[in-house]
Amino acid sequence: MKALLIWFVLMNLDKLLKTAHCTETQDQILSITPKTQEQVDILKNVSTQYETALWQPVSPYYIKEDTQVHLFVPANSSETVKDLLLRHAITHEVLLANPNELIEMQTRNDSTDPRSSSTFYERYHSLEDIYFWINRTQQDNPDTVKVILIGSSFEKRPLYVLKLSVNNRPNKKAMWIDCGIHAREWISPAFCLWFVQYSLSFYHSNRDITNILDNMDVYILPVLNPDGYHYTWTTETENHSELLEIVQEAAQKIKRHYRNIYEYGSGAKTIYLAPGGSDDWAYNLGIKYSFTFELQDRGRYGFLLPPSHISKACNEALLAVKTIALKVIEKTQAPTTPA
């Protein structure tokens, strides 16, 4: 998305003549599936040598035969790139015809105060709005929410963690959730906000949430990469089988409730190899249970998941988090029984 917004500023004024009519060529997202190794090599070259941005996969290294590639093509490169694809018999389809319009829609918010808008949690928010939300959430829930400053980013932005704790029972387990590792995946911080709001709102009425918070302290870091997240808003441009068992149940519940199929397994195989994440850090500390969610959308919208999809994406992830947390409680301690 960083490259996407930069290209929008540079290229939006370009107009091309086509078939004797004056039409405005817009930025586009192309979907391409290479069928031969030659086509793979050409796509790798296009994604690195031309004014384009690779959306899927994460790196040209992972472009393979019969694997879908999503390529952002700015307006001034559109004709050149499409002619190159045509010369090499590489077929494509337009996945998004005008991503800039979608970006503008997604950054349009009706309010920064969660108490004044019923749609607050169904919209994306800037880093400043999220900081405001963190303080407001703590002020509104002083007995349950504690805000902890755990450090700062490279550019000196604060890293805030919200601790949800409803009792002082000894020997409680802890659950850690961090969002916003990859700056352009806006749905990730949106889920962290959603999860906190849901947990606070339904602690007394949802049996699963009650069970989780009675037995665990939950730590949530809404934006792990604040520098990158801020940039995307302001710049134009050993227990493998056990872990598998837990995530399999979560995936099955999502399929049963929402008819959506989530692939499960090691992150390097199901998503892509990405060393240095918080899951690796947790593993090296000896933390037994560590999971990574790849949230929507891996289809048409990619990183530009429309706000109308936030509710469904967050409910799916919420179901998975509840399932995993309850399974961890089941495996590590006896659930609390009412007095």
UniProtKB/TrEMBL annotation:
GO terms for cellular component: extracellular space. Keywords: Blood coagulation, Carboxypeptidase, Disulfide bond, Fibrinolysis, Glycoprotein, Hemostasis, Hydrolase, Metal-binding, Metalloprotease, Protease, Secreted, Signal, Zinc, Zymogen. The active site is at residue 294. Residues 1-22 form the signal peptide. This is Carboxypeptidase B2. GO terms for biological process: blood coagulation; fibrinolysis; proteolysis. Gene3D superfamilies: Metallocarboxypeptidase-like, Zn peptidases. PROSITE patterns: CARBOXYPEPT_ZN_1 (PS00132), PEPTIDASE_M14 (PS52035). Belongs to the peptidase M14 family. The lineage of its organism: Eukaryota, Metazoa, Chordata, Craniata, Vertebrata. Its EC number is 3.4.17.20. Residues 123-328 form the Peptidase M14 domain. It is an enzyme of class 3 (hydrolase). One of its GO terms (molecular function) is metallocarboxypeptidase activity. InterPro entries: CARBOXYPEPT_ZN_1, M14A-like_propep, M14A_act_pep, Peptidase_M14.
